[in-house]
Amino acid sequence: MRGVVFTGDRELEIMSFPDPTPGFGEVVLEMKASGMCGSDLKQYRRPRGVRQNNGLATAEGPVIAGHEPCGVVAAIGPGVDPRQARVGQRVMVHHYQGCTSCNHCRTGWQQLCQKTSVKVYGNNAHGGHAPYMCVPANTLVPLHEGLSFKAGAAISCGTGTAWGALRRMNVSGNDTIAIFGQGPVGLSATQLAAAMGARVIALDISPQRLERARQFGAAETINPSNVEPVAAIRELTHGLGADLTLDTSSSPQARIQAIRALKVWGTCCFVGEGGEVTIDVSPDMLRRQATVIGSWTFSSVGQEECAQFILDRGITVDDLFTETWRLDQAEEAYRLFDTQTSGKGVFLL
User: Fold this and answer.
1) How does residue 296 score in pLDDT terms, banded at 50, 70 and 90?
2) What is the distance, to the nearest Å, from the Cα of residue 84 to the centroid of all Cα atoms in its chain?
3) Into which CATH architecture does domain 162-294 fall?
4) Distance of alpha carbon 66 from alpha carbon 61, whole angstroms
5) According to the model, what pLDDT value does residue 16 have?
6) Where are the domains of the chain?
7) Residues in domain Enoyl reductase (ER) (predicted)?
């Protein structure tokens, strides 16, 4: 089979790999949809010859990209519990693998494993940008017939990440939430928070993304390149500030604005990877009783809950995708995605 490999310096290759065979406790998936995520761009842009695995174990040899996999179980290896997988089953993948036995792994948070080097599929282990993918059966999350494979791909990272952050903040219909950045994760957060009943203020420097945020349920939009965003948020909240703020952009400027736009006793959450922010602790946090948290993706339990919420509320997650691609179009797909002016892309297989 052939799979997409990021080779560095904004280049990729479609390389040949052996068709996978499931080992003990593993399954092989026939891929149906594999989403493109903003965190792919870190590997896509990295200097050639330099691996950036964020402290993860370094893979041996080229690695197939794609950590938003969704497909159908095609083959099952020995030792797989029939309750975990069956041939023909529609599934998503929780794209992490730890020791499987520590408290974090057993509660669905394998990415937080403290006992072994974590595998991240599409990063230091083969991902979903290929016709087939081999994963442990314990990483599978069922995909309901009422959800498309595209929706499953979104839930497998970007939309699931938004869900995890919103649940960490206990968003409700009483809240006004300001969401900084309306890329795929931010737009997912806007869609989900609106469905939870919150009043959403969406921020982005792209007029096109702000228009999409309106379509996805934002009550108000702010372009920080046109107005001072903290003042604008306070004006929209009777001078108090937002109950909750969420930064999906990784921008240091947006992050400090997200903290300063909070009301007294407000909560700010960061989900954007990497980067730094400088906080003046007393005025920014202590004297406003602010809470600042980080949220790294979601558990496998949360992934299934997110899918069920989307199904029950009839949320059109498919509308997140502005482009669909074939694998042989990967070079063009990532060149466009790298501009960060479009929406979300997905490979359909």
Assistant:
1) very high
2) 24
3) 3-Layer(aba) Sandwich (3.40)
4) 16
5) 98
6) 2-157+298-348, 162-294
7) 8-347
